[in-house]
């Protein structure tokens, strides 16, 4: 199966012309998929600048009729419909189960696991309690878990979100700011959140070496991160030039097709465990 999902339109019954019934049908399909275990966790490895495996990012896939649908095709709908709450809970639960398993493997036990969290989840008053419950049930090591938020947190009710982040941070879990530089980008707010890392968006990484203006931007993000004592994670590293640039620039860690594609969780564990 291919990792890139195609247009969700092909899942729709063509007889359902109006948007409302299409949405209802997609929502029903997603609920059913959730119940049937069709939402599966993939893991992409992350390496430090010396090439050592240091972590992984969880990336969701919808295994539907033999096809893997990319989250780019369903996360926005999940957010609009509210399904992001049960879906996000599923991702967190499975991620924590993985961390608990990894804890017993000499290689995997060292890894951090990054999980994407939607701002809709952060707005949920029950979110931090739910996270605490999952940590409790799974006995996952909280200090191995890092939640990735996008800059949309800057546009939200800052006090509420900051408070919730502190509650979760107090459980031992870390936060990183994803897709840094592409969104709202209010630098003034950066140090108000309990952040451990910044992720340089792959649009900047892609242009390093091709667009003359990009290298200084990446260098500036790295310098900013260092000043703020944040780790800098680069994503979308596809070639040696990009990797060399990021290593020279002082990036903490990186991920991308050059270093390792996202793999189904079981395969990731097989490939990267001490036993595998
Ligand atoms: P993201 O968090 O920025 O994740 C990185 C995306 O880049 C992933 O796309 C990954 O497969 C892709 N990627 C990794 N290495 C390379 C590379 O070298 N080159 C290129 N061109 N791409 C690379 P994916 O898996 O399709 O995920 C898309 C987005 O969906 C993610 O972007 C994230 O925002 C969201 N997402 C994924 N899983 C979840 C989840 O469990 N919950 C939520 N709320 N969002 C998720
Ligand atoms: Ca991410
Ligand atoms: Ca990202
Ligand atoms: Ca991105």
From TrEMBL:
Residues covered by the EAL domain: 23-276
Name of the protein described by the UniProt record: EAL domain-containing protein
Source species of the chain: Massilia norwichensis
Span within the parent record: 426 to 701 of 705
């Amino acid at each position: 199966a291919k990792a890139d999902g195609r247009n969700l339109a092909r899942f729709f019954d063509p007889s359902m012309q109006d948007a409302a019934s299409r949405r209802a049908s997609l929502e029903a399909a997603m609920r059913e998929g959730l119940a049937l275990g069709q939402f599966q966790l993939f893991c992409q490895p992350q390496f430090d600048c010396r090439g050592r495996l240091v972590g992984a990012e969880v990336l969701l896939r919808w295994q539907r009729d033999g096809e893997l649908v990319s989250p780019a095709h369903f996360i926005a709908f999940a957010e609009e419909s509210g399904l992001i709450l049960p879906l996000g809970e599923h991702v967190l639960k499975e991620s924590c189960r993985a961390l608990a398993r990894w804890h017993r493997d000499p290689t995997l036990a060292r890894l951090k696991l990054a999980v994407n969290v939607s701002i809709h989840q952060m707005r949920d008053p029950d979110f931090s309690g739910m996270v605490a419950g999952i940590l409790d049930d799974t006995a996952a090591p909280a200090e191995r878990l890092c939640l990735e938020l996008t800059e949309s947190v800057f546009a939200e009710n800052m006090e509420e979100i900051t408070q919730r982040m502190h509650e979760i941070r107090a459980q031992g879990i870390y936060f990183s700011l994803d897709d840094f530089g592409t969104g709202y980008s209010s630098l003034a707010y950066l140090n108000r959140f309990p952040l451990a890392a910044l992720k340089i968006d792959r649009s900047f990484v892609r242009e390093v070496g091709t667009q003359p203006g990009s290298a200084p931007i990446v260098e500036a993000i790295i310098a900013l991160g260092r000043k703020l004592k944040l780790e800098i994670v680069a994503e979308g590293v596809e070639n040696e030039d990009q990797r060399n640039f990021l290593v020279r620039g002082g990036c903490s860690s990186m991920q991308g097709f050059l270093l390792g594609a996202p793999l189904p969780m079981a395969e990731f564990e097989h490939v990267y465990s001490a036993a595998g």
